[in-house]
Amino acid sequence: MAVVAVPQRRSWPRRPTTTTGFVSWLTTVDHKRIGILYGVTAFVFMLIGGIEALLIRLALARPTTPDAALLDADTYNQIFTMHGVTMVFLVVMPLGAAFFNYMTPLLIGARDVAFPRLNAFSYWVFLLGGLFIYSGFLLGGAPDGGWFGYASLSSLSEGPGMTFYAIGLQIAGLASLVASVNFIVTIINMRAPGMSLMRMPVFVWMTLVVNFLLLFSLPILAIGLFQLTFDRIWLTNFFNPTMGGDPILWQHLFWLFGHPEVYVLILPAMGIVSEVLPVFSRKPLFGYAAVVFAGAAIGFIGFGVWAHHMFATGLGAIANTAFGISTMIIAVPTGIKIFNWLGTMWKGALRLTTPMLFSIGFVMMFVIGGLSGVTHAVVPADYQQTDTYYIVAHFHYVLFGGAIFGLFSGIYYWWPKFTGRMFNERLGKLHFWLMIIGFNMTFGPMHILGLQGMPRRQYFFSPGQGWDFWNLVSSIGAFIIAVSILVFMVNAVRSLAKGKAAEADPWDARTLEWTIPSPPPAHNFDEVPTVHARDELWHRKYAEDTEGRPAPVVAGAQDHHQEEHGGGHGIHLPLPSFWPLFAALGIPLIGYGLMYHWSLIVAGVVTLLTGLYGWMLEPLE
Amino acid sequence: MAAEPHTAEHLPTATGLDNRKLAMWTFLGSECLFFGALISTFLLYRKNVPEGEIIPSEIYDIPYTSVSSFVLLMSSLTMVLALAAIQRGDHRQLRIWLVCTAALGMVFISGQVFEFTEFIEHGFTIRSSVAGSAFFLLTGFHGAHVTVGILMLLTLAMLSSTGRLTQEHTLRVEMIGLYWHFVDIVWIVIFTLVYLIP
Fold first, then answer.
1. What's the rounded mean pLDDT across residues A454-464?
2. CATH code for the structural domain at B18-196
3. Residue A237: which of B11, B44, B130 has the nearest Cβ?
4. Which of A238, A239, A592, B121 could form a disulfide with A155 if both were Cys (CB 3.0 to 4.6 A apart)?
5. Is the ipTM of this complex over 0.95?
6. What CATH number labels A31-501?
7. Measured between beta carbons, which residues in chain A are less than 8 angstroms from residue B3?
């Protein structure tokens, strides 16, 4: 009865095979190249979001009158909304994804992620989602209801902006959801022999926690966004109180996603710092298990604190108290990590390189942001702080002082691995010092302004309220940050053009990615490594002398693998594919169709299905 | 989503579970929250209608929906039979049961389309009240899931009849089966919470 298998047909369409040139970037399924695509895209969005921030700070540099304001109210609403949307969804999240992509397989000793084509699909969907949101600027108005899109600001907002928000975030969310499945499977299933869970580098652990957070929180946001889309396009009333709808429902759905999202933004940076600090302290991470469990605890408790964003909506004393307490509780695992990082540096042989400086900067700034965060857990105090610049100060300390400093630490730390080039240390340090000074000048004063009562989301402020001086300081600080980013760009370009070639292990580091050349070959490892210890590479390089100090092993272990196995010939790698990009193109088409004309929906669905069927049927070899 | 067999077929995995199967379970975990949020919205809004509009529980035809629910549940049985068929190498039976499952799914969807038309004719629409909005969003998204499932089942049947679904692809049938059973289970929850509880 059984049907005889037909041999794989090699006819149309052939899988692309180019590994260089423009087309190869469109068809790549290599996790390292996808990681670079994520990183570069996120950096471009960071420049755009940064320009929006500078516009905000220019508008608020001096007191003025409504008529003389630099940006009118409508423009200002779009700019600050897009600044938030960009930085959260199009910068910090994809920068995290860039590291997940590039580093996770290297850190666990795998040749790629579990589903390489799906990985490419995630990237293209993310990119198209970002472009979709930004296309609002050209098509009648960008989102203008805040990055949190509170109803009814979102559901009843004039102009198409918030429809771009609802559909665009849905698209970007789909990208993250697909990626989260991919990374969870990769980490659980693709570890090299001997890489038990408790030998995994902390960065991989944090990647796992982040992707579980995304997996469980994104569908909730998706429902909120669908309801918003229906409200805006088909005139339902999910969030319209005059028709029985409840705007608070949006806040619940949004923050049920939004608070885990906060940890999605910060945990990758915490993972990076947990890799960088041990290397430049020449000590193992202090309390590895505690750091891992604290990360997992943050993941669980992160789903139980969302209503602290909503104290002022009148949830009632019981709910406010419960969420106040849970918010204080979640500070505990975070505090555990801080002490572990301090313990790692304690009595270590510190090398204050650029990545180390950024990691130390992260710890300091994050402590400030964490402390101001705990003050929000005190409900009466929160009533006073809500919607003031104090909140703006707080979340910039955790998301900029925290996440961005941590991510820059990772960029500098792994730069030699990514590019095969060393960067200039002096420029790197200049970047750090300019950034930390500019950062504190920009956001430090906002604590004071907030406590003095300056409200958020105002396109101007009047003279005579005592806010003039600190606003000016803040605006100057913002431009210092901009200069620091320019320094980084100069450094990056110089390094790529004429930087010193990087060795396999320039930092005398501890983990598997440093056992292979910089940049890594397409197949990563000539031979899949067998892991014997946490900090595998360190233990290959160093034994302990009688007093417990590290003593180099004579035949340093890192290079002979590559020579023995002949450069990885005969290793089977997945071929590039056009289909992920093709399928992804259908999705924004459907989005535009929902807004403009049904024929675009048809075109989008046909494109998507063609892409998926082509993908399924394309030959593997 | 299309399956990606490369690495799965070349390397044993760390847990011994196939990558694709683990991915499907992970994805279904996410789907629980998706339907959870939809069901929560409905439970919040189910009695929230303006004066003179229809409350959902007044308009349900429980015997009718019971029958279509039964049809959907039976499709889980035929899905199991399809998987059993490919596992013992009986590809003709596999195709029969795949098409049966898809057909039962289509009966369910037709029933839903008919139910929607009836409700709308009686004035219970997606705009008549937030209860209506929540009802149609929830059941509509479930229907969309069933439709995607039907498409995948028919694709499997088509692949099988052109000889591209061989014994080594048993896992594909199993994965689509997991999805199909999940969508059925969600319907049991919806039928209980939305239709049966007054």
1. 94
2. 1.20.120.80
3. B130
4. A239
5. no
6. 1.20.210.10
7. 616
